[in-house]
Amino acid sequence: MNDDDIQQIFFVECEEALEATEMGLDACKAGTHDSETINAIFRGVHSIKGGAGAFGHTALASYTHCFENLLGDIREDKVALTPQLTDLLLLACDLLRNHVEAARGSGDIPDDTALMEKLEAARSGGVETIETSTGEITGDSIGDDLDLDLDLDALLDDLTGDAGATSEPQAEDEAPSWLVHLRPHAAALDNGGEPLLWLRELASLGGICEACGQADIPGLDGFDTDQGYFAWTFRMPGSVAREDVAEIFDFAGEDCGLSYDNDPLPPLKLRADTPAARSNAAKEASKAEPATNAPVDKAKDIRTAAPAPEASPASTASPASTGAGIAPPAASAVAPDKAETNSEGQAQESKPQPAATSNSANSNPATQSVRIDLAKLDRLIDGVGELVIAQAMLAQRLENENFAHIEELGLLDTLIRDIQEHAMAFRAQPISSVFGRVPRLLRELGSNTGKHVKLEVFGEGTELDKTVIERLSEPMTHLIRNAVDHGIEGPEDRKAAGKNPEGTLTLAAEQKAGRVVIHIKDDGRGINREKVLAKAIENGIVSEDANLSDDEICQLIFAPGFSTAAEVTSVSGRGVGMDVVKSNVRDLGGRITIESVEGEGTTFSLALPLTLAISDGMIVQSGDLSLVVPLTHVIESLRPSPEDLKGVGTQRTMLNVRGRFVPVISLGAVTGAKGWIDDPCKGVVVLVETEGHGQAALMVDLITDQRQFVIKSLDANFRTVDGVAGATILGNGQVSLIVDVDHMVRAAVSPSSLAIAA
Amino acid sequence: METNQPSAQDASSSQVRVLTVDDSASMRALLRAALTSSGFEVEQAEDGQEALEWLATNEVDVVLTDINMPRLDGFGLIEKLRESALHAERPILVLTTESSDEKKMRAKNAGATGWIVKPFDAAKLTAALRRVAH
């Protein structure tokens, strides 16, 4: 991911923040002034400011800073939010949008001086109705806000050689200079402080090191490399405030002794005196304990041997010797025991198991989770899929040998089903992640269309495959946009129809027979079938004399190039949409259906598979070939009577399905199977629906089974074959090809491209 | 949460593992880019709650957290981490646009190790992280 990609994420965030801000201001305008609304507005501007700084959009950053200051005052009740001020904020928000556009590169940086002056003026009571007294108070607090300095940033400037950040030399000698004494303790290093940086920071403020107290440095045998032994004295110029120096040590706190001018030097604080040091020593001691049988003895040995400077590195690393000379020997002798009782005590506290170990991970009884790489998980699920197939093959083989009812087989079957279910559950996620985005969408639509819609959600805990969830949000968004834009009427129309002026959108998810069904229901005007039919005829989607059922008319809105919106709105209605929704859902192996009652509303129902790894298929026989037809394409199967069939030319046969003619395609012929039944009236016809080529009737010998199958890619194992979507292994171990219905029908109805491989 | 494999440029054996906690996707992406290119191993969480759950079973060398976040903010995260034996001494740096003394004191009292103000300078940030990670 490069910088540009990251910027794109930022602009998406800006968009969301702008919407949230606008939404909040609209609410203010409508009279809602509660702290939550104000907070939302503040957060929106605040987040844009954060990113603007990070991406170097200085104009945007300084404008949002100004805007945020005013909002901060409003949030803290320093400035009253009057209607005039709300209007000003709305103006500011519009300008903010222009600023964001400019940062994105699609516009010039707007002139914000006038408005920024107004925002500043509002802070100090510039908007007419605000009392001057509050204004003055806020005016003062601005200064404080802006003066604040940074901690680690400032400290680290020097370290990273950021020359520009060093402060200007202090030349004024008017105020008397003063002294600061500091003594970093061991804890300063332990807790991540950097005494060297503090010294440099003092120097950059103009401080001069006058003395370095070395009186406390112990002999070599008592030397602790992590302990501070020096006491520094710096002379600071009089122009530097004591607070500025104190601020450097903000985060050091007790880890660094400080005193000023004639006060005595801060006393030496040894690491053994601090609780952190003690626990540290104990921790290290317990770590080291298994390695050495008698750490105490060893420490003694080292000390009595009076280590020469070339003492082995092990002696400095040894925890016992670290404390030697500072802590009495007894302390180090106690430490390992203490550490042990400690950790054991913890483990017993949280889990009273007899086999309590000193493993600290056991001390946290909260729900535990493990994060796994998705690819690893998919390999597992793939493996489970294979296992299911292998089990089926085994069962079939045993059955052939008359071992069908052995007990172990049943057990194996149960276990494998269990494993499969659990493996699938790994990938499952609650649908609430999709539903959760809907309120925002509705607010956005509300502000664009003026239709206020109440949301009701059921079954948000229903779980679906992660991939399905991810790919679901696009069609869902489309359906919801359509429901609000075309389905739900404007408030006036609703009142006239005797409905609540506020529309209701209901989202419900439930698991049903191995699929998840999602209902998207609005209480709008419903589908006007006459209008839909007229439009479809006008657009040439159906012929004028077509005799369609109500259901079939509803289905027309999924036809490519269909749009009934009289006016194209900003929300939807550009003629792309529902057909895309349908193909999206079908790509997921799902189906979409409509129920609509005119005047009462429309319900779209999406039936989705629990997982993409396994699909439902119809196993058909054609001559000597077993083929799988994905169930998502299948509408119905039937055995036609001779009068329903009509020959067209020499090759084609059409089937009359309740008044409509669909082409009959012989699966046996296109796949080159041997010995297939040539007469549809003796075999079976499977009516399928395709993308872009309408319906077709696939002629097969018989339907043998309907089952779930695991798709194996043919490209990966062999090569791409037109008309074949992949392969699967049937229960009897036989490899069966999965029919690519779309491609096969397209090739069969346009004779020029008859290129289907067996 | 995703894990980035560290770039090959840092071959040193002791790689510093950082958990960044920030609700802004762009900030997460920026941090990931800045830290992985400096040889850090980066884990990410979107808010305090997610960080807390993840840290219940995982170890990092340093936690770098934002303050303003939904569900569980930075202060809450630090307090909760300090309560658990596992993270009582974990270095925790705060990275935020906030810069008021009051907030800094709150963070320090909660147990934060350091405070860095956004927008961050990558070199400074990595130096701070290396320093506190020991």
Automatic annotation (TrEMBL), chain A:
Residues 614-750 form the CheW-like domain. PROSITE patterns: CHEW, HIS_KIN, HPT. The modification Phosphohistidine is found at residue 46. GO terms for cellular component: cytoplasm. The keyword Ribosomal protein does not apply. It catalyses: ATP + protein L-histidine = ADP + protein N-phospho-L-histidine. It is an enzyme of class 2 (transferase). SUPFAM superfamilies: ATPase domain of HSP90 chaperone/DNA topoisomerase II/histidine kinase, CheW-like, Histidine-containing phosphotransfer domain, HPT domain, Homodimeric domain of signal transducing histidine kinase. It comes from the Bacteria. GO terms for molecular function: ATP binding; phosphorelay sensor kinase activity. Residues 305-336, 352-367 have a biased composition (Low complexity). This is Chemotaxis protein CheA. It comes from Erythrobacter longus.
